[in-house]
């Protein structure tokens, strides 16, 4: 990555994630027949942050979480050189009648979300699926998909890439970067 | 970043695969196994792929397993068995296959009685080929599902000891298994009457043992091969009688109970109950024979999915 701009530093990221947690409680409490599902691969890290923050803010709330891999439902299989490799899926319940909030870090074309929704449907018929994203890249959608909960919306320019980095052994702090390819 | 992908276009034998390839297949088989537990056991990935299953030799389990794997990936499937085909009218293998490919088939799964038939075919046609058993040569998907089943039962194969018992000379399962297990770091021993173990086998770095009880004491896993009764009817007899074979090399509960550990028991099927394995053992809690069959579909889905990715859309 050549030119980088920090869109969100750790402090701001923290505030945004807390707001999203409050929004979840505001909209879905008491969380009956509710599940928060992270989209593989990077939505899973965001899901982890969300649920640990949610635990801190509301220690008494216990919600189902799961992860879904959209790989087998993608529309770019055998189109180009990119190999589509599978990741783990873990859905602990039959989704019949469940309210699902699908969680991903960056919403771009919407194609991954479409594949994710199709994958979810194999686990039953949810009563509703909502979408929560940390970063919403506006004006770049290729499908009619819009998020209900957004961390931050940004305008999109060709050739720019948004990268969410989470704090771990390799990275000293969490941040969201905008990079020129 | 180096994208992970299979290093081969065909699966003609385990020798085409690297350790990383086998790992990649296992990782995908894990995910496909999860798919098979879902309320809807099907993914749409291969919607526009047509696979021909060419069985020039009889098979029930392998053919069903391949067909289920293909259907659960949403591929279109055409089946062909030699008994009812123009092969009987004298058509050559390449002609038969080229005729099928002319009908826009994207991938071929083939079983054939001649060793090397798949390799020969791969030199003449342009689509990915999966070997579903060629004579006494290789049966790669069986070896993959065996190794996958061991990994599922007792974890990483590195350093695990596996004994393959029975007719090694005539077994494509044995040859593929030896290669596959060694590539993932397991130690392999073969056990059987001297007449059924080829002399050159020691060159593959395999231990050879003729006493089943010693072999069982050494191993973590025993893979009992089927005694091919049909071969006993020919002029050459490899052992004096079935009863004698069964006494010396049949796996019984009594033999298992003598060990001070619980080993895993496998069999590629079809079983001759009371010959190479007793019913009690085959149906017992140490046996993973039915897990092998179940895993067969997931492993074949992984192989087909990974090979199909390399077919460019026209």
Average predicted confidence as pLDDT of chain A: 91
Number of strands of chain B: 9
Largest interface: A-B, 22 and 24 residues
Helix fraction of chain B, binned, reads: 25-40%
Reported for the largest beta sheet of chain A, the result is: 5 strands, parallel
Succession of helices and strands of chain A:
EHEHEEHEEEE
- Count of runs of 4 or more consecutive helical residues of chain A: 3
Structure overview:
The complex is a heterodimer of chains A (181) and B (314). Chain A has 181 residues and is of the alpha/beta class. Chain A contains three helices and eight strands, in the order E-H-E-H-E-E-H-E-E-E-E. Chain A has helices spanning 10-28, 43-57, 111-120; strands spanning 4-8, 34-39, 64-68, 99-107, 128-137, 149-154, 160-165, 175-180. In chain A, strands 3-2-4-5-6 form a five-stranded parallel sheet. In chain A, helix 2 (43-57) links the parallel strand 2 and strand 3. Chain A is globular and about 45 Å long. By secondary structure, chain B is of the alpha/beta class. In chain B, the strands form two sheets. In chain B, strands 7-6-5-8-9 form a five-stranded parallel sheet, with helices on both faces. Chain B has a four-stranded parallel sheet with strand order 2-1-3-4. In chain B, helix 6 (172-183) links the parallel strand 5 (161-165) and strand 6 (187-191). In chain B, helix 2 crosses helix 12, helix 5 (140-154) packs across helix 6 and helix 5 (140-154) crosses helix 12 (289-308). The two termini of chain B are 27 Å apart. The model of chain B has no long low-confidence stretch (mean pLDDT 91). At the A-B interface, loops of A face helix 1 of B.
């Amino acid at each position: 990555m050549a030119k980088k701009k920090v869109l969100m530093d750790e402090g701001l990221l923290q505030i945004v994630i807390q707001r999203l947690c409050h929004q979840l409680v505001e909209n879905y409490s008491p969380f009956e027949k509710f599940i928060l599902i992270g989209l593989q691969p990077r939505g899973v890290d965001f899901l982890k942050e969300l649920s640990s923050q949610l635990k801190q803010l509301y220690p008494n709330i216990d919600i189902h979480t799961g992860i879904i891999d959209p790989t087998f439902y993608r529309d770019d299989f055998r189109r180009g050189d990119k190999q589509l490799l599978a990741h783990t899926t873990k859905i602990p319940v039959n989704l019949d009648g469940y309210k699902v909030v699908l969680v991903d870090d960056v919403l771009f074309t919407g194609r991954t979300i479409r594949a994710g929704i199709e994958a979810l449907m194999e686990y039953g018929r949810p009563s509703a699926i909502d979408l929560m994203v940390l970063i919403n890249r506006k004006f770049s959608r290729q499908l009619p998909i819009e998020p209900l909960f957004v961390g931050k919306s940004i305008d999109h320019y060709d050739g720019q890439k948004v990268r969410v980095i989470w704090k771990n052994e390799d990275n000293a702090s969490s941040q969201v970067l905008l990079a020129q390819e | 970043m180096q994208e992970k992908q299979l290093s081969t276009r065909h699966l003609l034998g385990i020798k085409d695969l690297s350790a990383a390839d086998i790992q990649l297949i296992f990782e995908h088989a894990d995910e496909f196994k999860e798919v098979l537990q879902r309320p809807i056991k099907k993914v749409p990935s291969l919607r526009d792929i047509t696979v021909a299953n060419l069985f020039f030799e009889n098979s029930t389990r392998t053919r069903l397993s391949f067909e289920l794997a293909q259907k659960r990936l949403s591929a279109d499937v055409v089946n062909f068995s030699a008994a009812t085909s123009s092969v009987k009218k004298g058509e050559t293998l390449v002609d038969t296959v080229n005729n099928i490919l002319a009908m826009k088939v994207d991938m071929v799964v083939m079983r054939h009685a001649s060793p090397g038939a798949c390799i020969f075919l791969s030199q003449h046609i342009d689509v990915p080929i999966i070997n579903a058993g060629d004579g006494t040569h290789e049966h790669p998907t069986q070896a993959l599902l065996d190794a996958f089943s061991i990994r599922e039962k007792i974890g990483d194969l590195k350093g695990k000891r596996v004994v393959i018992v029975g007719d090694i000379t005539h077994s494509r399962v044995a040859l593929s298994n030896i290669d596959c297990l060694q590539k993932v770091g397991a130690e392999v021993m073969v056990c059987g009457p001297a007449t059924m173990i080829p002399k050159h086998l020691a060159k593959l770095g395999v231990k050879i043992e003729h006493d089943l009880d010693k072999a069982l004491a050494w191993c973590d896993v025993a893979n009992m091969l089927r005694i091919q009764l049909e071969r006993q009817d020919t002029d050459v007899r490899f052992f004096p009688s079935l009863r004698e074979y069964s006494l010396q090399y049949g796996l019984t509960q009594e033999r298992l109970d003598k060990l001070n550990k619980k080993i895993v028991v496998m069999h590629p099927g079809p079983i001759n109950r009371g010959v190479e394995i007793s019913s009690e053992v085959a149906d017992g809690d140490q046996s993973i024979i039915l897990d092998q069959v179940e895993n067969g579909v997931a492993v074949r889905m992984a192989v087909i999915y990974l090979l199909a990715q390399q077919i460019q859309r026209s």
